[in-house]
Amino acid sequence: MEEFIQQLTNGLAVGGIYALVALGYTMVYGVLKLINFAHGDLFTIGAYLGLTVLTALGLKEHLGPVAGIGVLVIFVMGLVAIIGALLERVAYKPLRHAPRLSAVVSALGASIFFQNAVMLVYGARFQVYPHDLLPKVVVNLFGLEIPLLRIALFVSSLVLMAGLYLFIHKTKIGTAIRAAAIDQGAARLMGINVDRVILLVFCIGPALGGAAGLMVGLYYGQINFTMGWVYGLKAFTAAILGGIGNIPGAMLGGLLLGVIEALGAAYLSIAWKDAFAFGVLILILIVRPTGILGERVAEKV
What's 175's domain CATH number? Predict the structure, then answer.
């Protein structure tokens, strides 16, 4: 039982990271019906920018570990949001009315560009986060010792996901995003600036992905320039699992995928970890092709 709870908490922490990245995929798909294949690389950029800002500004020494990490998260999310906005303006906006295949090719090209740019700037070797960045504290929960960092990652993921959900469903800008996702032509007739909405989506999604990349660096302690491909594929799987274009579906799919991986690796074989995740995806698509919560409809963005 103790091992099960340990693996469950680990799966929820990793699943929260998957969910944050999956939200970027699902928001872009909801508005543009486009899979942003460069999104995983924005996640990688977030991890590397986090390391750069952390070491360059010495946030821990000046602000302490907790406040330093908080400022670091804001820095990284803001920087990656700017990169996401530039990506939309350079790679996607000029192809807004082109055949969809053109946008897909542009997305793949942007992915290759970002991945190689990171490799050229930082090198092909693994980069390591400072080991003494956060104190190794464990929390006694129901008689079990669970690392505080694991709990903090999960709670932070939930806070970001809840904030996005409330923003989309409780604000005027969120209403505009939902309207553009349902019918861009009708949204324009209602006075909504659809181009600005799309730009905002390309800021929010990458910002969440950048925060997830930072979380991976803090949790595992090392990053590499190809990590965006692996995590991007897992997050894309999570978005499909929950229902592509459906924000609650992306959240549920990410958490579920993380738990399946963790339990499968612990009780069956770690070598088959990826096979378990994709096997469940295949099963869900056979039984329910639209995902667990279904694809986006008028009430779900």
Answer: 1.10.3470
